[in-house]
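One-letter codes give the sequence; each number marks local geometry. A record appears below:


***
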Amino acid sequence: MVPTSYYVLLSAILFTIGVLGVLLRRNVIVVFMSVELMLNAANLALVAFARERLAVEAQVLVFFVITVAAAEVAVGLALLVSIFRTKRTADVDEVSTLKG
């Protein structure tokens, strides 16, 4: 059986990669993927602790978090497509500085 600390360490590494992706990248798609990576890292830690304590409620909570994250991605990508149609760019800096 794999210790819970390994799962928590993996979760921390994934969350750190997600934070770096949000802070360092300029493409909106990469930023969305990094946010999803951070959500999945938090879910991994929650499931690891739930497995240790044999709590099914936390695993149900993770299911709802994944559902909300999928809806967030759908809305985010729809906004990205509409912005790309008008601005012709997916760069975070250029989209935030352009007006109109």
Notes: The longest helix spans residues 56-87. The radius of gyration is 17 Å. The mean pLDDT is 86. Residues 27-89 form one domain.
